[in-house]
Structure formats: structure tokens, C-alpha cells
Known about the structure:
CATH topology of the largest domain: D-amino Acid Aminotransferase, Chain A, domain 1
Helix content: 25-40%
Shape: globular
CATH superfamily of the largest domain: ATP-grasp fold, B domain
Strand content: 25-35%
Number of helices: 15
Distance between the termini: 49 Å
Amino acid sequence: xxxxxxxxxxxxxxxxxxxxxxxxxxxxxxxxxxxxxxxxxxxxxxxxxxxxxxxxxxxxxxxxxxxxxxxxxxxxxxxxxxxxxxxxxxxxxxxxxxxxxxxxxxxxxxxxxxxxxxxxxxxxxxxxxxxxxxxxxxxxxxxxxxxxxxxxxxxxxxxxxxxxxxxxxxxxxxxxxxxxxxxxxxxxxxxxxxxxxxxxxxxxxxxxxxxxxxxxxxxxxxxxxxxxxxxxxxxxxxxxxxxxxxxxxxxxxxxxxxxxxxxxxxxxxxxxxxxxxxxxxxxxxxxxxxxxxxxxxxxxxxxxxxxxxxxxxxxxxxxxxxxxxxxxxxxxxxxxxxxxxxxxxxxxxxxxxxxxxxxxxxxxxxxxxxxxxxxxxxxxxxxxxxxxxxxxxxxxxxxxxxxxxxxxxxxxxxxxxxxxxxxxxxxxxxxxxxxxxxxxxxxxxxxxxxxxx
Length: 453
């Protein structure tokens, strides 16, 4: 049984894992960079080891140093959180070879789903509907143009090893395709060390809806309902909610079955997410699988009452899931706002610096996951997210009202944040009516005065 876990991450997710471990009576080891010496996860873990300089490449992406820390501290398992090495198949293999449990799927599944072309082929063979596109990576511009013409414009060019919106470009005709094809390849090469790209039909103004998966090592695969992640900026999620205000009961059932089928095709174990695009007519298409815990996992926790981090640890321990699909009930509505250290009025420019005052909202139906506090200095080396505000209630209307109220209470001074932006969205009629698609943010920003932010 797991008695001590190294947390190979930082910020709010590291703190979230520490809390789950403490409730389970499991010891924790925090690893941290020189820039994170003041971070709460370092202060609240049972032990902490510095593994390198401020840059991710010198610390959180150094698998060798993380494994060394694990061996020095004699841990049983490593939880990768999200980002950094969480979807690195080689790192998962290293953990396995060192007899350290990797709290996530097997390296085989990570590798299979991490390659977008392989993932699509796997889903196609499993009978899961995918977005029309190339059969795999396209070798050159000539071949790519032929594929684009066959599919029909607009198309989207995607990096095979992509993520976070990088290596993705949209083309509406042959002329724009030639330019965007080379831009996408160059960006992919710089970001991932792999310039391979593939082509897909671009679904205009879809919903981005993902299903939370849990699978044990005994063959049981379940879904915990969906999250609507359509409010995005440059393919980066800003707001997530569950259940989706768009899905009907029938569509939800069909997509849930497809998500389970997709996870089974990947021979999946532990927590993961099957992501779909859904068009205005309710047609849904598999786009990718995230082989890790998601930033937005608290949304699902609040509507189902299931602690996903604890379930991840239980699965890594070889335990069977203690419930069946019919036991999972979604009887609440939850909305999550990502609180980023950014200035929305200045094109979301990062705003690192010292927080002079930090006051988190509270009250019925309010949860805050954050590592921030008064006097904390936000480093400039990492992602700008400093917290997540999750508000929930028996109906979507109440969840919206609580979100607006909680955002009004949330005080962060000394830096710019996305709190005013979220507050404006919570009072926007389009969002209130549940009509937001992935094109929502561009429209919202174009019609909303920046002085509101």
C-alpha cells in the first residue's frame, strides 16, 4: 500500500494532492524550484526537496532529479498532477522501472493517446466518431493541400504532439493554408521538438465537452458525467461547468457510452478525460484524450461528491472502484472560474509580482483551490493560473448567482487578475442563457468595454 507520495508539481494542484493525502494518512514529499521556496505546497508537505533553478527545464521537467528525490526520500509513488511530466510516457516508464508507482495510466496508454494521429486511428477502429481529417501526419504542403481540399475548407492544422493551443492554425482557403501550414509546423517544432502535423475539418462554433473517466486495474471503466469547457481564449480554457447546459439527456447518454468505449480502446487505467467537439445539431466528434487529472476536476467532484485525487491513489493501490455507473448521480450544478495573474484589458498580459492583499470568498456553495496568499510573490516562470473558484448549487441559476457574488468578494491586490473579466461574463446574457460556444470569448471581448476589467 502507498504510504508516501512525491508530488511532481507545484501550485494549487500540488496543494490539492497534499490535502487528499493528509486525509488518507499518506505522507507527502514536495519537490520545488528555487523560485517556489515560498509556495504553500512546500510549506504544507511533510518533506520538501529543492530540485533546481527557476526555469521548468531546470526543475519540474527534470525527470532524473525527481526520480533521485523519490529514491532519497524513499517514496512509494509519484503523483504528476497536470502539465509538466504528467503526460510523459518516458517518465511513467522510469517510475515503473524504479519500482515507484506512477499515479496515472500505464506508459503504453499515455504514448498511444499522446500521439494525436495514433489516438484518432485507435478511436476510428473502436467505432468512436472522429473529426474528418488526414489518416495521419501529412508529409509536405502538396499532400496537405490535397487533404484540405478533399475535406473542404475551413480546416485546422494541428501538431501531432500538440497541446495548450500551440501548433494549431486555421485555414479558410488554399492561399491562407500555405502560410498557416508552415507556421504550425515551425511552432510545433519549437514547442514540442516534433514538427509533424495533421489536418482536420474545422468545426465552426462548436461546444467543447469532455467526459471524466475513472478506470481501475480490474477492467471496470466508468464516466462521471461531462464538463462544458467552451469558454476559451486561444484554445486555453477559462470557465468550465457541469452539467453542460447544451446536452440533452439522450445525447449525454450516447456521449457517455462513447467516452467509455474510447477509454477501453486505450486500455486505460486511473483518471482521464475524453474530449469531444459538439456541433449545433448535436453531432459529436472525439478530438483527444487527456491522460491525467484535469485542472477543472473540482467541477466534477462537486456535482458527484467523488474525490478524484483519492480515487487516483486507490486505483494506483490496485483497489477496485467501489461504485458502478448507476451509482453516479449528478444532482448539482457547478461552475469553475480560472483565476489567472493576467491583465484582460491589455490582451491578457501576464502580471507576475507580489500579492499585497489576498482574501478568498466563502459561504455556502463556494470552494477556492489556490496556493496564493498575502505576501506571496508570483514567479514569472510558470503558468499564470493562481487559483480556481468553484461555485455550486442545486440549479445552474444558483451556481451563476453564487459565482457572481463570490467574484465580488474575491480580493487580490498588487497584481492584475481575471476576476473582473469573470464577473463580467457571469452577468452576460449569452453566457447566462447557456449559449456559449468556443467562439464566445472573441465575440464577448469585441462587445465588452475593457474598462470593465
